[in-house]
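WARN no homologs supplied; continuing
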Amino acid sequence: MIVVLILIPIPILILILILILILILILILILILILILIPILMVSLPKKDEPFSSYSIHSIRGFIGAKDFAESRRFYQTLGFTEVVIDGTMSLFQVGEQMGFYLQNAYVKDWINNSMIFLEVADVEVWEKELLALNLSAQFPTVKMT
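OK structure emitted
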Protein backbone atom coordinates (compact mmCIF):
# COMPACT_ATOMS: atom_id res chain seq x y z
CA MET A 1 0.00 0.00 0.00
CA ILE A 2 1.30 3.39 -0.98
CA VAL A 3 0.48 6.41 1.11
CA VAL A 4 1.03 9.84 -0.30
CA LEU A 5 1.47 12.59 2.16
CA ILE A 6 0.95 16.12 1.10
CA LEU A 7 2.53 18.58 3.35
CA ILE A 8 0.79 21.92 3.42
CA PRO A 9 2.27 24.72 5.42
CA ILE A 10 0.18 25.62 8.48
CA PRO A 11 -0.69 29.22 7.45
CA ILE A 12 -2.11 27.97 4.13
CA LEU A 13 -4.02 25.18 5.92
CA ILE A 14 -5.53 27.73 8.32
CA LEU A 15 -6.50 29.95 5.37
CA ILE A 16 -8.19 27.01 3.61
CA LEU A 17 -10.11 26.14 6.80
CA ILE A 18 -11.22 29.76 7.20
CA LEU A 19 -12.44 29.84 3.58
CA ILE A 20 -14.35 26.58 4.11
CA LEU A 21 -15.97 28.02 7.26
CA ILE A 22 -16.92 31.21 5.39
CA LEU A 23 -18.51 29.14 2.60
CA ILE A 24 -20.45 27.09 5.16
CA LEU A 25 -21.69 30.29 6.83
CA ILE A 26 -22.74 31.73 3.48
CA LEU A 27 -24.68 28.55 2.67
CA ILE A 28 -26.38 28.66 6.08
CA LEU A 29 -27.35 32.32 5.52
CA ILE A 30 -28.74 31.48 2.08
CA LEU A 31 -30.81 28.64 3.54
CA ILE A 32 -32.13 30.90 6.30
CA LEU A 33 -33.09 33.57 3.74
CA ILE A 34 -34.85 30.97 1.59
CA LEU A 35 -36.76 29.64 4.59
CA ILE A 36 -37.82 33.18 5.51
CA LEU A 37 -38.64 34.38 1.99
CA ILE A 38 -40.63 31.36 0.78
CA PRO A 39 -43.50 31.83 3.28
CA ILE A 40 -43.56 35.57 2.54
CA LEU A 41 -43.76 34.92 -1.20
CA MET A 42 -46.37 32.21 -0.75
CA VAL A 43 -48.66 34.60 1.12
CA SER A 44 -48.63 37.01 -1.80
CA LEU A 45 -49.44 34.34 -4.40
CA PRO A 46 -52.96 33.00 -4.98
CA LYS A 47 -53.68 29.48 -3.72
CA LYS A 48 -54.19 26.78 -6.33
CA ASP A 49 -57.78 26.05 -5.26
CA GLU A 50 -58.64 29.73 -4.80
CA PRO A 51 -56.95 31.59 -7.68
CA PHE A 52 -57.97 35.08 -6.53
CA SER A 53 -58.01 34.57 -2.78
CA SER A 54 -55.29 37.11 -2.12
CA TYR A 55 -57.00 39.87 -4.04
CA SER A 56 -59.89 42.12 -3.09
CA ILE A 57 -62.38 41.11 -5.76
CA HIS A 58 -65.79 42.64 -5.17
CA SER A 59 -67.77 41.29 -8.12
CA ILE A 60 -67.68 39.87 -11.62
CA ARG A 61 -70.26 41.08 -14.12
CA GLY A 62 -71.12 40.18 -17.66
CA PHE A 63 -72.27 42.41 -20.50
CA ILE A 64 -75.33 41.48 -22.53
CA GLY A 65 -76.91 43.23 -25.46
CA ALA A 66 -80.54 44.01 -26.20
CA LYS A 67 -82.56 44.04 -29.38
CA ASP A 68 -85.06 46.40 -27.71
CA PHE A 69 -83.18 48.25 -24.98
CA ALA A 70 -86.25 49.95 -23.42
CA GLU A 71 -88.24 46.72 -23.27
CA SER A 72 -85.27 44.79 -21.85
CA ARG A 73 -84.84 47.41 -19.15
CA ARG A 74 -88.53 47.13 -18.17
CA PHE A 75 -88.24 43.33 -18.17
CA TYR A 76 -85.36 43.24 -15.70
CA GLN A 77 -87.00 45.91 -13.54
CA THR A 78 -90.17 43.77 -13.46
CA LEU A 79 -88.10 40.80 -12.32
CA GLY A 80 -86.94 42.89 -9.35
CA PHE A 81 -83.48 43.97 -10.44
CA THR A 82 -82.39 47.44 -9.42
CA GLU A 83 -81.28 49.53 -12.38
CA VAL A 84 -78.32 51.87 -12.20
CA VAL A 85 -78.21 53.93 -15.38
CA ILE A 86 -74.63 54.31 -16.56
CA ASP A 87 -75.54 56.40 -19.60
CA GLY A 88 -78.16 56.34 -22.33
CA THR A 89 -76.74 53.15 -23.82
CA MET A 90 -75.90 51.05 -20.77
CA SER A 91 -77.39 50.16 -17.40
CA LEU A 92 -76.21 48.02 -14.52
CA PHE A 93 -78.91 45.68 -13.18
CA GLN A 94 -78.24 44.46 -9.67
CA VAL A 95 -79.56 42.12 -7.04
CA GLY A 96 -77.86 43.31 -3.88
CA GLU A 97 -74.57 45.13 -4.23
CA GLN A 98 -72.40 42.33 -5.58
CA MET A 99 -74.54 40.50 -8.12
CA GLY A 100 -75.46 42.05 -11.40
CA PHE A 101 -74.81 42.48 -15.09
CA TYR A 102 -74.57 45.26 -17.63
CA LEU A 103 -77.30 45.65 -20.24
CA GLN A 104 -76.19 47.48 -23.38
CA ASN A 105 -78.15 49.12 -26.13
CA ALA A 106 -76.28 47.02 -28.64
CA TYR A 107 -77.69 44.40 -30.96
CA VAL A 108 -75.45 41.85 -32.61
CA LYS A 109 -77.71 38.94 -33.49
CA ASP A 110 -75.10 36.15 -33.10
CA TRP A 111 -73.94 37.60 -29.77
CA ILE A 112 -77.47 38.12 -28.41
CA ASN A 113 -78.57 34.63 -29.49
CA ASN A 114 -75.58 33.10 -27.71
CA SER A 115 -75.78 35.14 -24.48
CA MET A 116 -77.11 33.59 -21.29
CA ILE A 117 -77.52 34.63 -17.69
CA PHE A 118 -77.58 31.97 -14.99
CA LEU A 119 -79.46 32.90 -11.83
CA GLU A 120 -79.27 30.43 -8.96
CA VAL A 121 -81.97 30.61 -6.29
CA ALA A 122 -82.50 28.82 -2.98
CA ASP A 123 -85.99 27.47 -3.82
CA VAL A 124 -86.83 26.94 -7.50
CA GLU A 125 -90.51 26.18 -6.86
CA VAL A 126 -91.06 29.43 -4.96
CA TRP A 127 -89.20 31.41 -7.61
CA GLU A 128 -91.24 29.77 -10.39
CA LYS A 129 -94.52 30.70 -8.68
CA GLU A 130 -93.34 34.30 -8.30
CA LEU A 131 -92.36 34.46 -11.97
CA LEU A 132 -95.66 32.98 -13.12
CA ALA A 133 -97.53 35.50 -10.94
CA LEU A 134 -95.79 38.33 -12.82
CA ASN A 135 -97.47 37.13 -16.05
CA LEU A 136 -94.34 38.04 -18.00
CA SER A 137 -95.58 36.59 -21.31
CA ALA A 138 -98.48 39.08 -21.35
CA GLN A 139 -96.22 42.04 -20.58
CA PHE A 140 -93.34 40.97 -22.81
CA PRO A 141 -94.47 39.05 -25.91
CA THR A 142 -91.02 37.63 -26.69
CA VAL A 143 -90.62 36.04 -23.23
CA LYS A 144 -90.90 32.26 -23.18
CA MET A 145 -91.53 30.45 -19.90
CA THR A 146 -90.61 26.77 -19.99
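The chain has a mean pLDDT of 83.
OK
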